[in-house]
Amino acid sequence: MSKPRLIGAEIFRHSSYGRWHPLRVPRVSTVMDLSRALGWLPPEQFIIAPRAKPKALHVWHTPAYIASLQRVEATQEATAQDRARHDLGSVTNPVYPEIFRRPATAAGGSLLAGELLRDGGIIYNPPGGTHHGMPDRANGFCYLNDPVLAMLSLRRSGVRRIAYVDIDAHHCDGVAEGFHGDPDCLMISVHEEGLWPRTGLLDDDAGGSALNLPVPRGLNDDEMAYIRDALIVPQVETFRPDAVVLLCGADGVEEDPLAHLSLSNNAHWAVTRALMGLARRFLVLGGGGYNPWSVGRLWTGVWATLNGHEIPDRLPPEAEAVLRALRFDGNRRGKNPPEHWFTTLQDAARGGPIRAEITDRVWRLSQRASRKG
Ligand SMILES: [Zn+2]
Protein backbone atom coordinates (compact mmCIF):
# COMPACT_ATOMS: atom_id res chain seq x y z
CA MET A 1 0.00 0.00 0.00
CA SER A 2 1.26 3.50 -0.80
CA LYS A 3 2.29 5.89 1.96
CA PRO A 4 -0.32 8.04 3.74
CA ARG A 5 -0.93 11.42 2.18
CA LEU A 6 -1.71 14.75 3.83
CA ILE A 7 -3.96 17.31 2.20
CA GLY A 8 -3.34 20.95 3.05
CA ALA A 9 -3.42 24.45 1.60
CA GLU A 10 -1.94 27.86 2.25
CA ILE A 11 -5.36 29.55 2.44
CA PHE A 12 -5.63 28.43 6.07
CA ARG A 13 -2.44 30.21 7.14
CA HIS A 14 -3.72 33.77 7.36
CA SER A 15 -7.47 33.35 7.05
CA SER A 16 -9.33 34.25 10.24
CA TYR A 17 -12.99 34.42 11.23
CA GLY A 18 -12.24 37.74 12.95
CA ARG A 19 -10.40 39.06 16.00
CA TRP A 20 -12.79 37.70 18.62
CA HIS A 21 -13.81 34.45 17.02
CA PRO A 22 -12.42 31.11 18.31
CA LEU A 23 -11.28 30.42 14.73
CA ARG A 24 -8.94 33.39 14.70
CA VAL A 25 -6.00 31.06 15.41
CA PRO A 26 -3.88 29.24 12.80
CA ARG A 27 -4.23 25.45 12.83
CA VAL A 28 -3.59 23.70 9.51
CA SER A 29 -0.50 25.79 8.74
CA THR A 30 1.00 24.76 12.09
CA VAL A 31 0.57 21.08 11.18
CA MET A 32 2.22 21.64 7.80
CA ASP A 33 5.08 23.69 9.27
CA LEU A 34 5.74 21.31 12.17
CA SER A 35 5.59 18.26 9.92
CA ARG A 36 8.04 19.83 7.49
CA ALA A 37 10.35 20.91 10.32
CA LEU A 38 10.40 17.31 11.52
CA GLY A 39 11.08 15.94 8.03
CA TRP A 40 7.72 14.18 7.97
CA LEU A 41 6.17 15.86 4.93
CA PRO A 42 8.12 15.04 1.76
CA PRO A 43 6.53 16.37 -1.44
CA GLU A 44 5.29 12.92 -2.50
CA GLN A 45 3.13 12.69 0.62
CA PHE A 46 1.63 16.16 0.31
CA ILE A 47 -1.39 17.14 -1.76
CA ILE A 48 -2.61 20.71 -2.22
CA ALA A 49 -6.35 20.81 -1.61
CA PRO A 50 -8.29 21.86 -4.72
CA ARG A 51 -11.12 24.33 -4.20
CA ALA A 52 -14.43 22.55 -4.75
CA LYS A 53 -16.56 23.86 -7.62
CA PRO A 54 -20.05 25.03 -6.64
CA LYS A 55 -21.60 22.18 -8.64
CA ALA A 56 -19.61 19.57 -6.68
CA LEU A 57 -21.10 20.98 -3.48
CA HIS A 58 -24.66 20.60 -4.77
CA VAL A 59 -24.54 16.87 -4.02
CA TRP A 60 -25.54 17.82 -0.47
CA HIS A 61 -25.85 21.61 -0.20
CA THR A 62 -28.61 23.60 -1.86
CA PRO A 63 -27.64 25.66 -4.93
CA ALA A 64 -29.30 28.71 -3.30
CA TYR A 65 -27.05 28.42 -0.27
CA ILE A 66 -23.85 27.97 -2.28
CA ALA A 67 -24.78 30.97 -4.46
CA SER A 68 -25.41 32.98 -1.30
CA LEU A 69 -21.98 32.07 0.14
CA GLN A 70 -20.28 33.13 -3.09
CA ARG A 71 -22.18 36.40 -3.22
CA VAL A 72 -21.43 37.19 0.43
CA GLU A 73 -17.74 36.58 -0.23
CA ALA A 74 -17.85 38.99 -3.17
CA THR A 75 -19.77 41.75 -1.39
CA GLN A 76 -18.55 41.04 2.17
CA GLU A 77 -22.08 41.67 3.31
CA ALA A 78 -24.88 39.36 4.41
CA THR A 79 -28.40 40.42 3.45
CA ALA A 80 -31.43 39.94 5.69
CA GLN A 81 -32.24 36.81 3.66
CA ASP A 82 -28.69 35.45 4.07
CA ARG A 83 -29.02 35.90 7.82
CA ALA A 84 -32.53 34.56 8.22
CA ARG A 85 -32.31 31.55 5.93
CA HIS A 86 -28.61 30.64 5.87
CA ASP A 87 -27.43 32.03 9.24
CA LEU A 88 -24.61 33.92 7.52
CA GLY A 89 -23.32 37.03 9.25
CA SER A 90 -24.12 35.82 12.75
CA VAL A 91 -21.72 35.90 15.69
CA THR A 92 -20.84 32.22 15.23
CA ASN A 93 -20.84 32.21 11.42
CA PRO A 94 -19.45 35.64 10.60
CA VAL A 95 -18.78 37.22 7.22
CA TYR A 96 -15.01 37.13 6.59
CA PRO A 97 -12.86 37.57 3.48
CA GLU A 98 -12.60 33.85 2.51
CA ILE A 99 -16.12 32.84 3.60
CA PHE A 100 -16.61 30.71 0.46
CA ARG A 101 -13.04 29.89 -0.63
CA ARG A 102 -11.87 28.58 2.73
CA PRO A 103 -14.67 26.06 3.36
CA ALA A 104 -14.70 25.16 -0.35
CA THR A 105 -11.00 24.28 -0.05
CA ALA A 106 -11.59 22.06 2.99
CA ALA A 107 -14.47 20.45 1.08
CA GLY A 108 -12.36 20.10 -2.06
CA GLY A 109 -9.82 18.14 -0.03
CA SER A 110 -12.47 15.85 1.37
CA LEU A 111 -14.08 15.26 -2.03
CA LEU A 112 -10.65 14.46 -3.48
CA ALA A 113 -9.92 12.10 -0.59
CA GLY A 114 -13.00 10.06 -1.47
CA GLU A 115 -11.62 9.63 -5.02
CA LEU A 116 -8.05 8.88 -3.96
CA LEU A 117 -9.23 6.18 -1.56
CA ARG A 118 -11.05 4.24 -4.30
CA ASP A 119 -8.48 1.43 -4.19
CA GLY A 120 -7.47 1.81 -0.56
CA GLY A 121 -4.98 3.79 1.48
CA ILE A 122 -4.73 6.43 4.17
CA ILE A 123 -5.54 10.12 3.67
CA TYR A 124 -5.28 12.87 6.28
CA ASN A 125 -7.18 16.10 5.56
CA PRO A 126 -6.72 18.30 8.65
CA PRO A 127 -8.59 21.24 7.05
CA GLY A 128 -11.67 19.01 7.00
CA GLY A 129 -13.95 18.12 9.87
CA THR A 130 -16.69 20.77 9.59
CA HIS A 131 -19.28 18.40 11.00
CA HIS A 132 -22.00 20.92 11.90
CA GLY A 133 -22.69 22.30 8.40
CA MET A 134 -26.28 21.85 7.16
CA PRO A 135 -27.58 21.52 3.59
CA ASP A 136 -29.06 25.03 3.46
CA ARG A 137 -27.27 26.88 6.24
CA ALA A 138 -24.10 27.49 8.19
CA ASN A 139 -23.98 26.05 11.69
CA GLY A 140 -21.43 26.15 14.52
CA PHE A 141 -18.48 27.73 12.60
CA CYS A 142 -19.13 25.31 9.70
CA TYR A 143 -20.30 26.73 6.37
CA LEU A 144 -20.13 23.45 4.46
CA ASN A 145 -20.12 19.87 5.68
CA ASP A 146 -16.97 18.27 4.28
CA PRO A 147 -17.34 14.98 6.22
CA VAL A 148 -20.68 14.36 4.51
CA LEU A 149 -19.15 15.33 1.16
CA ALA A 150 -16.20 12.97 1.78
CA MET A 151 -18.54 10.08 2.55
CA LEU A 152 -20.67 10.78 -0.53
CA SER A 153 -17.46 10.91 -2.56
CA LEU A 154 -16.43 7.53 -1.13
CA ARG A 155 -19.81 6.16 -2.16
CA ARG A 156 -19.24 7.41 -5.71
CA SER A 157 -15.93 5.54 -5.63
CA GLY A 158 -17.86 2.33 -5.02
CA VAL A 159 -17.41 2.24 -1.24
CA ARG A 160 -20.55 1.01 0.47
CA ARG A 161 -20.09 0.45 4.20
CA ILE A 162 -18.65 3.44 6.04
CA ALA A 163 -17.83 3.62 9.75
CA TYR A 164 -17.72 7.26 10.86
CA VAL A 165 -16.08 7.83 14.24
CA ASP A 166 -16.21 11.33 15.74
CA ILE A 167 -14.22 12.20 18.90
CA ASP A 168 -14.63 15.96 18.66
CA ALA A 169 -16.01 17.44 21.91
CA HIS A 170 -19.19 18.48 20.07
CA HIS A 171 -21.87 16.23 18.59
CA CYS A 172 -21.78 15.86 14.80
CA ASP A 173 -25.33 17.10 14.15
CA GLY A 174 -24.73 17.84 10.45
CA VAL A 175 -23.30 14.39 9.68
CA ALA A 176 -26.17 12.81 11.62
CA GLU A 177 -28.58 14.68 9.39
CA GLY A 178 -26.72 13.57 6.27
CA PHE A 179 -26.64 9.86 7.11
CA HIS A 180 -29.76 9.47 9.23
CA GLY A 181 -31.15 5.96 8.79
CA ASP A 182 -28.45 4.87 6.33
CA PRO A 183 -28.09 1.10 6.85
CA ASP A 184 -24.57 1.09 5.39
CA CYS A 185 -23.28 3.75 7.73
CA LEU A 186 -22.24 3.30 11.37
CA MET A 187 -21.78 6.63 13.15
CA ILE A 188 -20.13 6.62 16.56
CA SER A 189 -19.89 9.98 18.28
CA VAL A 190 -18.27 10.63 21.66
CA HIS A 191 -19.04 14.15 22.82
CA GLU A 192 -19.40 16.28 25.95
CA GLU A 193 -22.93 16.15 27.35
CA GLY A 194 -24.78 19.42 27.64
CA LEU A 195 -22.40 21.18 25.26
CA TRP A 196 -23.73 22.97 22.17
CA PRO A 197 -25.57 21.77 20.00
CA ARG A 198 -26.95 19.49 22.78
CA THR A 199 -28.00 16.86 20.25
CA GLY A 200 -26.73 13.27 20.11
CA LEU A 201 -28.37 12.05 23.29
CA LEU A 202 -27.73 8.48 24.40
CA ASP A 203 -31.10 7.29 23.14
CA ASP A 204 -30.87 9.06 19.79
CA ASP A 205 -29.82 6.40 17.27
CA ALA A 206 -30.28 8.57 14.16
CA GLY A 207 -32.69 6.16 12.54
CA GLY A 208 -30.61 3.13 13.49
CA SER A 209 -27.28 4.32 12.12
CA ALA A 210 -25.70 6.00 15.18
CA LEU A 211 -24.26 5.16 18.55
CA ASN A 212 -24.15 8.41 20.51
CA LEU A 213 -22.11 8.55 23.69
CA PRO A 214 -22.45 11.79 25.61
CA VAL A 215 -19.68 11.96 28.24
CA PRO A 216 -19.44 14.04 31.43
CA ARG A 217 -17.05 16.94 31.90
CA GLY A 218 -13.52 16.03 32.82
CA LEU A 219 -13.28 12.93 30.60
CA ASN A 220 -9.78 11.52 31.16
CA ASP A 221 -7.40 9.37 29.10
CA ASP A 222 -8.28 6.15 30.91
CA GLU A 223 -11.96 6.74 30.28
CA MET A 224 -11.29 7.36 26.59
CA ALA A 225 -9.19 4.18 26.45
CA TYR A 226 -12.13 2.29 27.93
CA ILE A 227 -14.53 3.80 25.37
CA ARG A 228 -12.08 2.93 22.60
CA ASP A 229 -11.62 -0.69 23.63
CA ALA A 230 -15.16 -1.45 24.85
CA LEU A 231 -17.18 0.45 22.27
CA ILE A 232 -15.42 2.01 19.29
CA VAL A 233 -13.09 -0.79 18.15
CA PRO A 234 -15.47 -3.75 18.69
CA GLN A 235 -18.40 -1.95 17.03
CA VAL A 236 -16.32 -0.91 14.02
CA GLU A 237 -14.90 -4.45 13.73
CA THR A 238 -18.37 -6.01 13.87
CA PHE A 239 -19.64 -3.59 11.23
CA ARG A 240 -16.90 -4.70 8.77
CA PRO A 241 -16.60 -1.36 7.01
CA ASP A 242 -15.15 -0.76 3.57
CA ALA A 243 -13.88 2.60 4.83
CA VAL A 244 -13.31 4.25 8.20
CA VAL A 245 -13.61 8.02 8.57
CA LEU A 246 -12.26 9.53 11.81
CA LEU A 247 -13.13 13.08 12.76
CA CYS A 248 -10.31 13.91 15.13
CA GLY A 249 -11.36 17.26 16.62
CA ALA A 250 -8.80 18.59 19.07
CA ASP A 251 -11.19 20.36 21.43
CA GLY A 252 -11.42 17.47 23.89
CA VAL A 253 -8.02 18.24 25.40
CA GLU A 254 -7.72 19.84 28.83
CA GLU A 255 -6.41 23.19 27.53
CA ASP A 256 -9.14 23.81 24.97
CA PRO A 257 -11.10 27.00 25.67
CA LEU A 258 -14.47 25.81 24.33
CA ALA A 259 -15.05 22.39 25.92
CA HIS A 260 -14.56 20.93 29.40
CA LEU A 261 -13.00 17.54 28.80
CA SER A 262 -9.59 16.63 30.25
CA LEU A 263 -7.93 14.46 27.64
CA SER A 264 -4.29 14.62 26.65
CA ASN A 265 -3.32 14.31 23.00
CA ASN A 266 -2.28 10.69 23.70
CA ALA A 267 -5.98 9.79 23.75
CA HIS A 268 -6.55 11.03 20.21
CA TRP A 269 -3.43 9.32 18.89
CA ALA A 270 -4.42 6.03 20.51
CA VAL A 271 -7.87 6.13 18.89
CA THR A 272 -6.22 6.91 15.54
CA ARG A 273 -3.83 3.97 15.96
CA ALA A 274 -6.64 1.61 17.00
CA LEU A 275 -8.68 2.40 13.89
CA MET A 276 -5.78 1.89 11.47
CA GLY A 277 -6.16 -1.38 9.63
CA LEU A 278 -9.83 -1.91 10.47
CA ALA A 279 -10.69 -1.16 6.84
CA ARG A 280 -8.82 -0.88 3.55
CA ARG A 281 -9.52 2.83 3.45
CA PHE A 282 -8.89 5.27 6.27
CA LEU A 283 -9.68 8.97 6.11
CA VAL A 284 -8.77 11.22 9.03
CA LEU A 285 -10.24 14.71 9.25
CA GLY A 286 -9.57 17.61 11.64
CA GLY A 287 -12.49 19.32 13.36
CA GLY A 288 -12.63 21.60 16.38
CA GLY A 289 -9.63 22.74 18.40
CA TYR A 290 -9.24 26.31 19.53
CA ASN A 291 -5.97 26.45 21.47
CA PRO A 292 -3.34 27.03 18.76
CA TRP A 293 -0.62 25.02 20.54
CA SER A 294 -2.86 22.09 21.50
CA VAL A 295 -4.37 21.73 18.06
CA GLY A 296 -1.06 22.07 16.19
CA ARG A 297 0.72 19.55 18.42
CA LEU A 298 -2.18 17.08 18.45
CA TRP A 299 -2.81 17.07 14.71
CA THR A 300 0.91 16.81 13.90
CA GLY A 301 1.03 13.80 16.22
CA VAL A 302 -1.88 12.27 14.29
CA TRP A 303 0.22 12.51 11.14
CA ALA A 304 3.17 10.89 12.94
CA THR A 305 0.86 8.10 14.12
CA LEU A 306 -0.45 7.43 10.62
CA ASN A 307 3.14 7.14 9.36
CA GLY A 308 4.59 5.26 12.31
CA HIS A 309 7.07 8.06 13.01
CA GLU A 310 8.58 8.15 16.47
CA ILE A 311 7.74 11.37 18.27
CA PRO A 312 10.88 12.92 19.77
CA ASP A 313 10.86 13.78 23.48
CA ARG A 314 12.17 17.21 22.65
CA LEU A 315 11.47 18.96 19.38
CA PRO A 316 14.33 20.09 17.13
CA PRO A 317 14.92 23.88 17.05
CA GLU A 318 13.09 24.41 13.71
CA ALA A 319 9.92 22.79 15.08
CA GLU A 320 10.18 24.64 18.39
CA ALA A 321 10.42 27.90 16.44
CA VAL A 322 7.08 27.13 14.75
CA LEU A 323 5.39 26.77 18.15
CA ARG A 324 7.15 29.81 19.67
CA ALA A 325 5.83 31.97 16.82
CA LEU A 326 2.18 31.22 17.67
CA ARG A 327 0.02 33.82 19.43
CA PHE A 328 -3.21 33.32 21.35
CA ASP A 329 -4.41 36.89 21.81
CA GLY A 330 -7.51 37.53 23.86
CA ASN A 331 -7.25 34.32 25.89
CA ARG A 332 -5.69 33.85 29.32
CA ARG A 333 -4.02 30.66 28.06
CA GLY A 334 -1.99 32.78 25.68
CA LYS A 335 -0.41 34.91 28.42
CA ASN A 336 2.10 32.49 29.95
CA PRO A 337 2.11 29.32 27.89
CA PRO A 338 3.92 26.46 29.66
CA GLU A 339 7.30 25.55 28.23
CA HIS A 340 6.24 22.10 27.03
CA TRP A 341 3.82 23.71 24.54
CA PHE A 342 6.94 24.91 22.71
CA THR A 343 9.32 22.01 23.15
CA THR A 344 7.19 18.86 22.82
CA LEU A 345 4.41 17.32 20.76
CA GLN A 346 3.32 14.76 23.34
CA ASP A 347 1.40 15.73 26.48
CA ALA A 348 1.84 13.95 29.80
CA ALA A 349 -0.92 11.33 30.14
CA ARG A 350 -4.06 12.45 32.00
CA GLY A 351 -5.47 9.29 33.49
CA GLY A 352 -7.99 8.85 36.25
CA PRO A 353 -10.86 6.74 37.51
CA ILE A 354 -13.36 5.35 34.99
CA ARG A 355 -16.71 6.69 36.15
CA ALA A 356 -19.80 4.51 36.38
CA GLU A 357 -21.88 6.74 34.11
CA ILE A 358 -19.39 5.99 31.33
CA THR A 359 -19.33 2.21 31.80
CA ASP A 360 -23.15 2.17 32.15
CA ARG A 361 -23.67 4.12 28.95
CA VAL A 362 -21.16 2.04 26.98
CA TRP A 363 -22.95 -1.09 28.21
CA ARG A 364 -26.33 0.26 27.12
CA LEU A 365 -25.04 1.14 23.67
CA SER A 366 -23.39 -2.26 23.28
CA GLN A 367 -26.62 -3.99 24.30
CA ARG A 368 -28.60 -2.00 21.77
CA ALA A 369 -26.07 -2.74 19.02
CA SER A 370 -26.06 -6.47 19.73
CA ARG A 371 -29.89 -6.62 19.67
CA LYS A 372 -29.78 -4.95 16.28
CA GLY A 373 -26.95 -7.13 14.94
ZN1 LIG B 1 -15.93 20.67 18.45
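^ zinc ion complex. Residues 5-48+109-372 form a domain with the Arginase; Chain A fold (CATH 3.40.800.20). DSSP finds 14 helices and eight strands in the chain.
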